[in-house]
Amino acid sequence: MASKGDSLKLTKEQKEALISSPDPINELVDILLANEPQEKREGFKAVLKSAQEKMHEDLAISNSEKIAGSFKLCSFSERNDSMLMWAHYASYHQGFCIEYNLENIPYSDYRRRFLYPTIYSNEMFDATEHLMRGVEDENFNNLHLSLAALVKAQDWEYEKEWRLIFANGILEKEQAYEIGKPKMVYLGAKIKPEDQDTLIKICERRDIPFSKMKAHHSEFKLEPTTIKDAEQHFFKEKA
């Protein structure tokens, strides 16, 4: 039995074999257990492989949580006419949609610098390459990691989403952010009368144009119109 002070000694050939092996763990087991039966070696390899996979899984989950925690984001959309989005995000047409004009914002503003179109993909984003580049390359631009917050399943492509991303600890916690005066407010087709009255008063006080959504007459989408016109439409609840 080896004493406590003994260290593992490998020959030059064994070291070269480990370095050139596509699976160094298996190679090392074969070296250390060279005198043991093949069945015992394979069992030991299986245990090591299982432990290695669990370690990688735990590390991936931990890194994913750390990356997610370093981002604060706000979602926008190019669309205001999607019936499905009004159902998802506005309590089935009972809410409202706010439109902003971001074209004339100076480049120094975070809203111009950190607002990106969402990338739709059938594959999840793998940050391994970007993390390794950060370790190996001192000139690495860590904005590459913003990609992790931009990839979304292809099924959501119809949303045409944009994301305002505060990465790398720019914002320490979730908080309100000044986005500017709205260009327009769109009331949901089934908005409650009391909510509609409140929003109209706010818009009139702040000189913000508003309209109300109604179903298009021949397409499966919504379109903005006047309050009077919208309330004559079939979306209006019967008394």
Summarize this structure briefly:
The protein has helices at 12-20, 24-32, 38-69, 83-89, 110-113, 128-136, 193-206, 227-230, and strands at residues 72-77, 96-99, 115-117, 119-121, 151-153, 161-166, 184-187, 210-215, 222-225. The chain is an alpha/beta fold and 239 residues long.
Structural class: alpha/beta
Count the domains.
2
The biggest beta sheet reads: 4 strands, mixed
> Helix proportion of residues, in percent?
25-40%
Mean pLDDT value:
81
Describe this structure in words.
There is one protein chain. Helix content is 37%, strand content 16%. With 239 residues, the chain is of the alpha/beta class. It has 2 domains: 12-68; 72-230, no CATH class. The strands form 3 sheets. The chain has a 4-stranded mixed beta sheet. α7 (193-206) links the parallel β7 and β8. The radius of gyration is 29 Å and the shape is elongated. The relative contact order is 0.12.
List the topology elements.
Elements (H helix, E strand, L loop, with lengths): L11 H9 L3 H9 L5 H32 L2 E6 L5 H7 L6 E4 L10 H4 L1 E3 L1 E3 L6 H9 L14 E3 L7 E6 L17 E4 L5 H14 L3 E6 L6 E4 L1 H4 L9
Which short descriptors sum up this protein?
disordered N terminus; alpha/beta; 4-stranded mixed β-sheet; 239 residues; 37% helix; 8 helices
